[in-house]
């Protein structure tokens, strides 16, 4: 009898284990877990932070424009002169931001030259010559770093950098705003001088990488930098504020 009871107990335990196993299998199929790599997680995290910043900027713009609208409505009858002055002031600020006004402020000047020995300008090794030549892609990287580090206005050899300015290789020249610029390149940037200098001289900056390739780069702090306005018309053929029906 005791033997039969043991067999019955084992049989019942086996049935219970089977039920639990099948339940876990079904549960795992219904609730699939997806795992992401460290790189994918970082990309999603950065994307989320970027969206947060964009939403915050939109809210700030909305509040600012809403206040302006209310001030215009409340002062339209008896304060037309003040409203006109406010509109003119805002127009001038927009011109400064867009690049149509001359601006000045403290900042830095970066001078970039190819890494050739003045006594021996010819380098036979094509790879070494390529590495020691400053390319338009290198200039784009420096511009991106300056913007990242807080530069508010940038010019290259006197050409004001606009939102649609091209940085294109034209043989021995680099073309910006349709103007071919020869080396050396003088990059002027208005912004927080200390922050710009420290960031560009950090070990992980692109400037350091260029210096490691043998490119000659000098960074000079300046109390006053004057950047001329963009000369020309900003043509818009396809942009529209109206929503397509």
Keywords summarizing the entry:
Alpha-Beta Plaits; 245 residues; alpha+beta; DUF881 domain-containing protein; transmembrane; three-stranded antiparallel β-sheet; flat; 8 strands
Describe this entry's structure for a reader.
The structure is a single chain. By secondary structure, the chain is α+β, with helices and mostly antiparallel strands. It folds into two domains: 40-98; 104-227, 2-Layer Sandwich (Alpha-Beta Plaits), CATH 3.30.70.1880. Helices cover 49% and strands 18% of the residues. It has seven helices and eight strands, in the order αααβααββββββααβ. Strands 3-2-7-1-8 form a five-stranded antiparallel beta sheet. The longest helix is centred in the N-terminal third of the chain and has 37 residues, at 38-74. It starts with a helix and ends in an 18-residue tail after the last strand. The mean pLDDT is 81.
């Amino acid at each position: 009898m005791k033997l039969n009871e043991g067999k019955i107990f084992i049989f019942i335990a086996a049935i219970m284990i089977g039920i639990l196993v099948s339940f876990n299998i079904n549960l795992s199929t219904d609730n699939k877990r997806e795992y992401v790599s460290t790189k994918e997680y970082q990309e999603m995290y950065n994307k989320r932070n970027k969206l947060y910043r964009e939403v915050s900027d939109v809210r700030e713009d909305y509040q600012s424009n809403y206040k302006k609208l209310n001030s215009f409505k409340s002062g339209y009858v008896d304060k037309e002169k003040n409203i006109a002055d406010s509109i003119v002031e805002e127009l001038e600020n927009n011109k400064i931001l867009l690049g149509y006004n001359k601006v000045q402020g403290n900042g830095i000047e970066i001078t970039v030259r190819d890494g050739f020995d003045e006594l021996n300008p010819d380098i036979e090794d094509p790879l070494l010559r390529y590495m020691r030549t400053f390319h338009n892609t290198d200039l784009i990287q420096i511009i991106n770093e300056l913007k990242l580090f807080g530069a508010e206005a940038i010019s290259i050899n006197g050409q004001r950098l606009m939102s649609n300015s091209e940085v294109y290789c034209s043989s021995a020249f680099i073309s910006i705003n349709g103007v071919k610029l020869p080396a050396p390149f003088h990059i002027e940037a208005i912004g927080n001088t200390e922050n710009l200098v420290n960031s560009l001289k950090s070990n992980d900056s692109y400037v350091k990488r260029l210096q490691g390739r043998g490119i000659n780069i000098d960074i000079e702090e300046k109390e006053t930098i004057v950047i001329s306005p963009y000369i020309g018309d900003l043509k818009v053929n396809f942009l529209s504020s109206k929503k397509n029906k």
